[in-house]
Structure formats: C-alpha cells, structure tokens
Amino acid sequence: QVQLVESGGGLVHPGGSLKLSCAASGITLSSYGMNWYRQAPGKERELVAVIDKTGGSTSYADSVKGRFTISRDNPNNMLYLQMNSLKPEDTAVYYCNAVQWNAIYWGQGTQVTVSS
Fold it and tell me: Scanning 36, 42, 60, 69, which has its CA 20 to 30 A from the CA of 50?
C-alpha cells in the first residue's frame, strides 16, 4: 500500500520559516518525480515546486521562487520543502505528490498558517 505522509506544518509569523517533510512508503521514491502543491481556502490547488527523480533539476512557482527549496533523500524515501521568508499568502494546506508515467499518489496534506 502506497502512503505519502506530510508533516512539519504549523503556525508561523510572517518572515518565519518552516520545513515540510513527506515520508513515502510502498514505493521506491527514486522512480518518481515529486512535487509540492498547496491549496488555500476558496482557491484551486497550485503547483509550488517540482523535483526530478534524481534531485538534479528543480523548478518553482514564481510566487515562491527564491524563498522555497525542494529537496529529496531517495535512500530514505523522503521529500522536503524548506520555506523561508513566509508571507500570509503562503497560508494553505500543502500536499506532496509522486508521479510516474502510470501512477500518481497524493498525501493527506499539512496545514501551514502564516499570521501575526
């Protein structure tokens, strides 16, 4: 059974930092491209960051570029999102996502709230 479990969300002040983790089980993470998405209340789910199978290539939404860093630890089946200089508009539920040509898996999400 495939599971993606996010953790690390919480309440943080504007300008603060959080590091999200996504623990994968039931799959070999190195076989999957991985992504972080987020969904704010009343808004569509938004792609935030992408990392290829080896971690050698990454890309980011313009809204987070220069503030967020996606990384992965394939031997330990882990995906990360380091979020710095957080803004109130970063408030959302954050989801990790694993993609292969014939399969897509989602985690249950972790809430990030940026507020003073």
Answer: 42
Mean pLDDT of the chain: 97
What local confidence, expressed as pLDDT, does residue 26 receive? Answer: 95
Judge contact between 38 and 60, C-beta under 8 A.
no
| d(C-alpha 74, C-alpha 68), whole Å | 20
Contact predicate 97/104, CB 8 Å? yes
CB neighbours of residue 47 within 10 Å:
13
What length is written for the chain?
A: 116
Distance, CA of 65 to CA of 67 (rounded, Å): 5
Helix (H, G, I), strand (E, B) or coil at 90: helix
